[in-house]
Amino acid sequence: MTMRPPGPAVAAALAAVAALALPTCAGRPATTRVPPAGSIARPPATTVPALHRLVADGAPGAASLITRAGRFPAARFSTAGYADLRSRRRMTAADHFRAGSLTKPLVATVVLQLVAERRLRLSDPAAAHLPPGVPVTAGHGGVDLRNVTVHQLLDHTSGLFNYTQDPWLTRRFYGTGFAAHRYDSHTPAELLRIALHHPPVAAPGARFAYSNTNYLVLGLIIRAVTGHPYAAEIRRRILLPAGLGHTSFPGTDPVLPAPHGRAYSRIGDRRVDATSLDPSRAGAAGEMVTTLGDLNRFFSALLGGKLLPPRQMAAIRSERHTGGTYGLGLYATRLPCGVTVWGHNGEINGSFAQSAGTVGGRHVVSYRVNTDDRLEPADTTAVLSAEFCARDRVSARK
Question: Does the pLDDT at position 393 exceed 60?
Answer without folding.
Answer: no
